[in-house]
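S.,

As promised, the zinc ion run. Input:
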Amino acid sequence: MALINCPECHKSVSDQARSCPNCGRPIKREEQRTVYVIQRANGRVEGYEEFSQLQRDGWQVISEHDEADWDGEAPFTRVVYQMRR
Ligand SMILES: [Zn+2]
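Predicted complex:
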């Protein structure tokens, strides 16, 4: 749990609180999304459109990691992005 400052009254509020106990302003938690971008052996890429759309909407990549995996006989590469507004 972390303390943040209420944007309205600037008092300390738990980031878990739904609203500020002092002034009642709703506290919006940071949204996070997970996006999987998968490159198939045949060159087809899945998930990239969603990824670039989120970036256009102002989402930031907060972490990414590559996963090598196997899909039946065809290898594919998967990149997992954690995105935050
Ligand atoms: Zn407040």
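The chain is about 10% helix and 45% strand. The radius of gyration is 19 Å.

- D.
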